[in-house]
């Protein structure tokens, strides 16, 4: 979260951010961010909140599955250690 705040990426009005409940403060920076709704002892979730959370988790699971597939490639998850020459790009 700290790196995300420091980057101050311009998502734009059309951009959409789907985050889990750990990113509750994200909506202060990006109003278009969508996080799951939390309950408390005094205020349990309504049916609408539960439906919203379920729909959000279905959308987030698609993205999380892609992240998992990307992480299976060790080349992407580690530093590239081979030397690149300008002639390699021609």
UniProtKB/TrEMBL annotation:
Cofactor needs: a divalent metal cation
Domain of life of the source: Bacteria
Molecular functions per Gene Ontology: metal ion binding
Residue ranges of domain DDE Tnp4 in the record: 12-83
UniProt keywords, alphabetically: Metal-binding
One Pfam assignment: DDE_Tnp_4
Protein name, as recorded: Transposase
Species assigned in the record: Streptococcus pneumoniae
Organism phylogeny: Bacteria, Bacillati, Bacillota, Bacilli, Lactobacillales
